[in-house]
C-alpha cells in the first residue's frame, strides 16, 4: 500500500527549529531547516542523525525546501550543509535567498563578538556557535570587519550557490509557478504573506500531494498581501498553528495601540527606542510610523540605525513584486520603502535633547547599538522601549520583559531601568480563524499541525476534525505519522474507445450503470486501454465466439412459418426500439439474435423456438427467451 | 486540429489554435507599419507639414487633395494614423477561450480583440509582459491623443480609388479594416482580463489542455508556450533570443518532443549582427556628438534601450562623453526605468545576483543618479528648461509618425551635424524618413534585433526535433531583396508548412490516446496475464465517469443482492439496451479443465443467485473433427467446443441456470486462462 510518511524533527508540538521530513511516493523531502532560538545546547538544531545514521544525507534526501528567511526556518542550514554535509538541492524563493544569509550573518556576528557578555557565556560551549566560529576556517567566509555595518557583502555566500530559486509566488491569486525537481517531483509555491518572500509549498508526485504552509498570514498587512491557496485537495496539509486557539484582535487595533504609545511618549518629550532586526518587522513599522507622521504632521525625528536603513530598504525596493498590491501599484510614483521621515541614525543623536524615535539593531537588546542607546535612555521615566518581537532567554530584552528593572552590566555596574517597557507582538501568523480558512480553501484529506504548543494544537485538532471531517495529526518531534494513500493509475485510453463510449451519452444511469469494456495492454511502463477488438488485432489473437442456443417450447398447432410470423409480430410490438426483422428463410432476428421455429419431433402441437445469441448479447438473449417462454398473445 | 492565421506579419503574429475542445489565440500583434502611410503628427505646429501640397488624381478631380498630401514624391494620408488589425472575420473571436501572450510587443492588438469581438475568455501573460505592455500601450495612446486631429480620411480607402493611387498606398492591404488607436479606458479593460503566470507554471484549460510559458530570452518576461495534452504537444515559439542580453536565457530543452512547432518572431534583419550594430551605434553617436551635433534615437520605451543604456554606461567615460546629456523622453520613461529594476527574477543570472548585494540590476540607475541620464514625460515642461545641446535623445515612436520624435526630426533635420540612428527593426528607415525629406541630417541604420536568425533556428530545430514545423510563408523563401540567399530561410525535414494571412491550416496531427485514471479499487481487481514477454493484458470492465474533461474509470457496482423477488423481476423486465459494448473473448477452452470445473461447480465460488448448487455428474465428452462436444445429459445440454468458438445448446428451463453456472467458469477461463 502506498503511503505518505511525515516526521517532524523540529516544530513538532513546539515552536522553533522547524524541520519536517516527508516521504511521498518514494521521494524524501525536508521542509525547512531551522534553529531553536530558545535553546543553546544540542536542542538548538534538529536531530539530523534521525534521517540516516550511516549514509550520506544527500543520497537520502531528494531536496530541501525553505519556506522563509526567519532563523527558526532556515537557521540550521549552515550547520546542515557545512557540518552534516548535505549538498543536494535547496529550494527557496529569491527574497528568502537574498535575505536569509544576512540574518544568519547578523546572528553569527552577535555570537563571535566576544565583548558581548550576556549571551556569550551561554553559547560558548554549544555546538552551533562553535560551528559558527568554525565557518571562517572553511575558507569561504571571512571575519566581519565591524559590528556596525551589517551589510558587508553576504559572508555566508556559500549559501547562495547550491540554492535553486523558486520563481515568484505573487500575491495575485492564480499565480503559482511550478518547479520540477526531477521527472516525478513537482514543487508549487503559493504566496504566504508572513514575511517578504515567504511561501507555502505543494509537493506533488503523480496524484499524491502534500502542502506545507511554513508560516503564513491570512490578513494583509502594511506591506504584504494575504496568503492564498487554490482548491488543490492535497492528501495532507501541514500547517503551522502558532495561534491555534486565539482569534486575534484586528491588526489595526495593535497598530493603533503602538502608534498611540509612540505618540504619547513623543508628545511628552520622551524618546522611543524600538529594537529590531534589520529586515522584516522593521520595514512594516517604518511604513506605519511614516504614514502616521505624515498624517499627524509630526516633527519629532525618526531614526534607523546606521548602515541598515538604506540597504535593508533597498531589498524591499528590489523585491516590489513580492509586496502587496497597493505598494506594487504605486511604486513608480512613490516607493513605499523610500521613507521621508525616517533618517539615518548617528551615535551622537542619542544625546540630543528632545523627543525622537529610534529603530536600532539588534532586536533582543543583547549587543550593539540598540543596547548602547538603551543604557543611555533607561534612566529616564519619560522614555519608552517597545519590544516588537520575541526575545531569547538571557538577553536584556528578555529580562526587562519579564519585569526585571535592575540589570547587572559589565564591570559590576547596575543599570536601573526607569523607562517604560512595552511588548507588542507584530508577528504575522494566521490565527485560528485564518487556519480554518486555509484548510477550507485547500480541502485536504488530512491535516497535520506543527509549529505550535501541544495544548493549543489539541484544541485546534478537535475543531478541524469536527468542522471538516478529516483526520488531524499533531506528532511530537521524532514521531512519525503514516497515511496510506491510494493513488489512481493514469493510463492512455484509445480515443476511439473513449469516443464510442462518450457518444452513448454522458449521464451514467445510477440504477443500471453502463459498463465500459476494454483491454488494458501493459508493455513496460506504458499502459494503454484499448477496445478488445483492437487489442486482439494488435497482438494477433483470434476472437473466441461464445454462442448460446436455447430451446423454447411453445404450444402452437399452426405451421412453423406461421409461428414465426406470430413471433415476429409479437416481438415487433414489444421491442419498439430494436431492429426486429423477418428474414426470407423464415427466421426472425432481433438485432443480432436469431430465432428459428421448428416442429417438435414428438409433439405436433408444440413448436420449438431456437433462440441463439452470442456472449455479447447475453442480456438481450436471456430477455428474449424469458419473454417468449411466457407464450405468444392469442391471435385476434 | 486547426490553425487560423489572423496576421500575416511574421514578427507580430496572431494565430488561433483549435486543439481538442479549446480555442487558443496565440499572441495578438498589431501591425503598425500601416502608420507609415500617414503624415506625422507634430507636437508643435509645423509650417512645413501643414503647407505640403495636396495630391489628386491625374483626371483633375480634386476631391482627394484634402486627404492626401505629397512630400518629395511620396503621397501620405493626412489623417489620424491607423493600424492594421488582425483578421476578425476568419473565426468568431467570441469563441476564443484564452489568449496566450508571448511578449509585450505581441499584445498591442489586445484591446481590439478583447473589447470589440464579444471575447469573454482569459488572457495569460507574465507580469513583466503585462506591466511593460501597459507602458507601450499607454505611450501609444498618449502620443495619439495629445495631438487631436479632427480629420479622419476615408475616401482614399475606396477600392476604386485606392488602385489608382501611387505606391505604397496602392499596395496597402486590408485598408478597410484599419482602425484608429484605442483609448486608455479600453486598454485598462483589456488588461484587467489578464491572468499573471510564471515560467513553467502549468495552467489547466478546462481539464483538456495544459499550457505552460517558457523563458524565450528575448525580452523581460517574454515567453514561448507549450500547449499540450497527455499525448500531444504543440510548441509555440515567438520572439526568442539566444544572445546574452538582459532577460533570462531561453529555455530550449522544454521544447523537445513536440508534435508541431509553430515558429514565429525570427529576426527581421537576418544579415545584421546585433553586436556589431551596437558597436556602430556607439561610434556614430560619439562621432556626431564630438562634432557638436545632436543624436536622435527613435525607440520604444522598453527593451533594447536598456541594453543601449548599459552599453553607453560603459562607453561614456572612455569616449569622453561624460559631459554630454542623455535624455530619455517618453510619457512612460520613468515607469519603464523603474519597472526594469524590480523584475530581478526575470533577468539573466548576472543581473539577478546584483539584487543580493543589494544593487539595482541595471546600471541606468547610476546614470540617473549621476545626472548623466535624465528622463522626462515630454518635451513640454521641465525638459525645455534643462535642454542643452549637443545631446543625445532617446524618444519614440520609432515609426516617426507620432510622439516627441517628430519634434526632434523637424528641429534637427535641417543640419548635417545631427544624426538620427535607427535601432528598432520594426520599420524600414527609408519609409520612416519619407515625409521628412529632403533631409540634411545624417541617417544611420543600426537595427538591433536579437531574435533568432536562420542559423540559430536550424540548430534549434535539430536540437528539439519537432515532427512538424509551421511558420509564416516569409520564412520558407529567401527575403525578396536577397533572393539568392537561400541560407536566409528555414531548412528542415519534413519541409515547414507555411501560412499566410487569413489562411486556415489543418495541422498534420492525429490524436490517438487520451488520459484516463483507473481508480485504485479497480486497479486492484484487474488480473493481468502475461501473453508475451514484457506484454501483459487485463480485461477491464468499468464505469466511466467524465467530469471537466477528466475521465475516471471506477469499478462496476456489485451485483445487487436479491433483496426481494418482486424488485428483481422488474429489473429483468426492462428491455436491455443492446448498444452497450460487451467484452470480446479470446483464446480456447482447455476441455479437461473445463469438465472438471463443471463437475465440481458446487464448490465454485461465488455464484451469486444460484439456489441449488450442484455439479454435473453425467458429463460425456466426444471428440469431433474440429474439437469436442461436451454433453450434459441430465441437463439436456450440449456444448460444442472448438478452437475459436463455443456453442451451448440447451432447453429454456435449463438456460438461465446454465448461463449462471457456466458464465463464471466460461468467461473467466476465456478471459484469463485462455488468453495464452
Question: Can I get a quick summary?
Answer:
The complex is a heterodimer of chains A (636) and B (676). Chain A is of the alpha/beta class.
Mind sketching the topology for me?
The complex is a heterodimer of chains A (636) and B (676).
Chain A (H helix, E strand, L loop, with lengths): L2 E8 L8 E6 L2 E5 L25 H4 L2 E3 L5 H4 L2 H7 L6 E4 H19 L4 H7 L3 H8 L28 E4 L11 E3 L4 E7 L7 E7 L2 E5 L23 E5 L10 H17 L3 E5 L5 H16 L5 E3 L4 H10 L6 H6 L11 E3 L11 E5 L7 H10 L6 E4 L8 H6 L4 E3 L5 E3 L3 E4 L8 H11 L3 E5 L3 H15 L2 E3 L7 E4 L4 E6 H8 L13 E8 L2 E5 L1 H8 L5 E11 L4 H15 L5 E3 L5 E3 L2 E7 L6 E9 L3 H12 L7
Parallel strand pairs in A: 3-4, 4-5, 5-6, 10-11, 11-20, 12-15, 12-16, 13-14, 13-15, 16-19, 20-21, 23-25
Antiparallel strand pairs in A: 1-2, 1-22, 2-3, 7-8, 8-9, 9-10, 17-18, 24-25, 26-30, 27-28, 28-29, 29-30
Chain B lengths: L1 E4 L9 E5 L2 E5 L20 H4 L17 E4 L2 E4 L20 E3 L9 H7 L5 E5 H19 L13 H4 L21 H8 L2 E4 L5 E3 L3 E7 L7 E6 L4 E5 L22 E4 L10 H17 L4 E4 L5 H12 L10 E4 L3 H10 L6 H6 L9 H6 L3 E4 L5 H5 L5 E4 L8 H9 L6 E4 L6 H5 L8 E4 L8 H11 L3 E5 L24 E3 L3 E4 L6 E6 L1 H6 L3 E4 L2 E13 L2 E5 L10 H9 L17 H9 L19 E5 L3 E6 L4 E6 L2 E7 H20 L5
Parallel strand pairs in B: 3-6, 6-7, 7-8, 12-13, 13-20, 14-17, 14-18, 15-16, 15-17, 18-19, 20-21, 23-26
Antiparallel strand pairs in B: 1-2, 1-22, 2-3, 4-5, 9-10, 10-11, 11-12, 24-25, 25-26, 27-28, 28-29, 29-30
